[in-house]
């Protein structure tokens, strides 16, 4: 038996299509064009690639893209000044400051300087707190994309045993909040977890976000489980996930590939959040199906 492939690339393309339709309607009916600003500090080649593909996807759905590339030695004050300017720019509805930032910066201070209503990554304390307390929030893009794929595959997640491997602020914690809000029974595992294989064997849903190439093994997986691989690891054999795809696919019911799984969903959800932010700030109805 071999798992079904969850085609994140196709799902993301369909989502971008719906976003493009909604953007066109917003322009035609309200003369409003959503705008997304992406800020990259430094020259990390991988980050540079993501920023370029975000910009391209933004323009393709009819939004305005503003790219700010700053040298690695940029001071935190200069970055904060740029964020303040973008906060006050009416053409900018979403702001993404690419992480990680150079070591001389206080990442939390920079992120929390983003106006919450433009925080399309959902990384500010206010949006994290809103998500955790069940209030209307901007939801982090990668977990939102994973949730969309899980609901599409499983329908209701109520009562499912879900294991999130990884406790980062950008994936693990918000993923756990979203699963909990959908009434799954959620466990969050991490590097200090004892008996991860045993925990994993109980899970109907596994979301792997640990940053270790091919970490999750086939003999850890409950037969028929749904496995979402958030990992992006560059190895000698190319891009691989946090899941050992070849062994896990023999046991799982469904699995996301890397590439072509969660990654494209992250970018599509960034556009979804930008559209949602634009609708909210203009008092327009929020397009359906873009928020949890
Ligand atoms: N503030 C902030 N927000 C982010 O959302 C953010 C960030 N910083 N820093 C870097 C990570 C990484 N990230 C990815 C987005 C898309 C793919 C993606 O589309 N991946 C393709 C493959 C692309 C390739 O070949 O490298 C795929 O999985 O199919 C991957 C990774 C967003 N990030």
TrEMBL record:
Keywords: Amino-acid biosynthesis, Histidine biosynthesis, Hydrolase, Methionine biosynthesis, Multifunctional enzyme, NADP, One-carbon metabolism, Oxidoreductase, Purine biosynthesis
Matches recorded under InterPro entries: Aminoacid_DH-like_N_sf, NAD(P)-bd_dom_sf, THF_DH/CycHdrlase, THF_DH/CycHdrlase_cat_dom, THF_DH/CycHdrlase_CS, THF_DH/CycHdrlase_NAD-bd_dom
Pfam families: THF_DHG_CYH, THF_DHG_CYH_C
One Gene Ontology term from the biological process aspect of the record: purine nucleotide biosynthetic process
The EC number(s) this enzyme carries: 1.5.1.5, 3.5.4.9
Matches recorded under Gene3D superfamilies: Leucine Dehydrogenase, chain A, domain 1, NAD(P)-binding Rossmann-like Domain
Domain Tetrahydrofolate dehydrogenase/cyclohydrolase catalytic: 6-121
The name this protein goes by in its record: Bifunctional protein FolD
Enzymatic reactions: (6R)-5,10-methylene-5,6,7,8-tetrahydrofolate + NADP(+) = (6R)-5,10-methenyltetrahydrofolate + NADPH; (6R)-5,10-methenyltetrahydrofolate + H2O = (6R)-10-formyltetrahydrofolate + H(+)
Subunit structure: Homodimer.
Family: Belongs to the tetrahydrofolate dehydrogenase/cyclohydrolase family.
């Amino acid at each position: 038996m071999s798992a079904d492939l969850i085609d994140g690339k196709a799902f993301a393309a369909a989502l971008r299509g719906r976003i493009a339709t909604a953007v066109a309607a917003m322009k035609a009916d309200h003369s409003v064009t959503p705008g997304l600003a992406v800020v990259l500090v430094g020259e990390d080649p991988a980050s540079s690639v993501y920023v370029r593909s975000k910009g391209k996807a933004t323009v393709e759905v009819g939004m305005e893209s503003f790219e700010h590339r700053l040298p690695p030695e940029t001071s935190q004050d200069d970055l904060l000044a740029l964020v303040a300017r973008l906060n006050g720019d009416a053409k900018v509805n979403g702001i993404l400051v690419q992480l990680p930032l150079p070591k001389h910066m206080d990442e939390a201070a920079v992120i929390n300087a983003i106006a919450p209503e433009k925080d399309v990554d959902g990384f500010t304390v206010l949006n994290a707190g809103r998500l955790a307390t069940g209030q209307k929030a901007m939801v982090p893009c990668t977990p939102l994309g994973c949730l969309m794929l899980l609901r599409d595959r499983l329908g209701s997640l109520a009562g499912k045993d879900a294991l999130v491997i990884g406790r980062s602020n950008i994936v693990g914690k918000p993923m756990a909040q979203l699963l909990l809000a959908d009434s799954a029974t959620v466990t969050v595992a991490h590097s200090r977890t004892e008996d991860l294989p045993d925990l994993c064997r109980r899970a109907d849903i596994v979301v792997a976000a640990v940053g270790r190439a091919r970490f999750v093994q086939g003999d850890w997986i409950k037969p028929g489980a749904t496995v979402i691989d958030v990992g992006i690891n560059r190895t000698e054999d190319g891009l691989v996930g946090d899941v050992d795809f070849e062994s896990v696919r023999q046991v799982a019911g469904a699995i996301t590939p890397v590439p072509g799984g969660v990654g494209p969903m992250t970018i599509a959800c960034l556009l979804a959040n930008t559209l949602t932010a634009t609708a909210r700030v203009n008092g327009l109805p929020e397009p359906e199906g873009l928020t949890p």
